[in-house]
Amino acid sequence: MNSHYPCGKANYLHDFGYKYCLLYNEDDFYLNSGRETQFFLDDVSLCLREKLEEIEPPKNDWGACQSYKKSAIDTHSECYVSSGYCELSKVEQKRIVKMATSELWQPIVLSEGLQLKWHCKKEK
Q1: Burial, 86: exposed, middle or buried (Cβ in 10 Å; 0-12, 13-18, 19+)?
Q2: Is residue 27 packed enough to be buried (19+ CB in 10 Å), middle (13-18) or exposed (0-12)?
Q3: Which of 10, 40, 57, 93 is most deeply buried (CB count within 10 A of its CB)?
Q4: How many domains, in total, are found in the chain?
Q5: DSSP state of 2
Q6: What per-residue confidence (pLDDT) applies to 124?
Q7: What is the pLDDT of residue 1?
Q8: Three-state DSSP state, 60
Q9: Cα atoms found within 13 Å of the Cα of residue 123, Cβ hemisphere only
Q10: What residues make up the domain containing 6?
Q11: pLDDT of residue 44
């Protein structure tokens, strides 16, 4: 799949999507999660992959790659909400967020995180 998305250092699939898909599904994290969290991880992974397939693959230029990355990350809060993130315990939510803290410096990631937090507050 990566050969179809030639974005070098701006490669969302390799540097973000694949990286976190592996991290969240590692035995240490996945198997030490509660049943609801495991269901959430399965559902959100499927949702994110399906949303990714709907996005037009980028050409090999920086602007298109950045646009693709933004479009892909923009799907996260929607997938997280529809997959039941807001219903997870606060402890489980924090475990999930903690895995991605190294990405929170990116404005688009932070924005999605804030949208997710807003959705969860709104649902309560």
Answers
A1: middle
A2: exposed
A3: 40
A4: 1
A5: G
A6: 66
A7: 45
A8: coil
A9: 13
A10: 2-123
A11: 92
Question: How far apart are the two ends of the chain, measured CA to CA in Å?
Answer: 39
25 burial (CB, 10 Å; 0-12 / 13-18 / 19+) is: middle
Mention every residue, 6+ apart, whose C-beta is less than 8 A from residue 118.
none
Structure tokens at 43: 């559902």
Sign of CA dihedral 96, 120, 108, 8: positive
pLDDT tens by residue, the chain, 124 residues: 445 556 766 577 667 777 777 777 777 888 888 999 999 999 999 998 899 888 887 776 777 777 878 888 888 899 999 999 999 999 999 998 888 887 778 788 888 889 999 999 987 6
Query: Which residue pairs from 2-10 have beta carbons closer than 8 angstroms and sit at least 24 positions apart in sequence?
Result: 4/57, 5/57, 5/58, 5/68, 6/60, 7/58, 7/60, 7/64, 7/65, 7/68, 7/69, 8/65, 10/62, 10/65, 10/66, 10/69
| Distance between CA atoms of residues 77 and 83, nearest Å | 10
Helices 62-73, 107-123: axis angle to 10 degrees equals 20
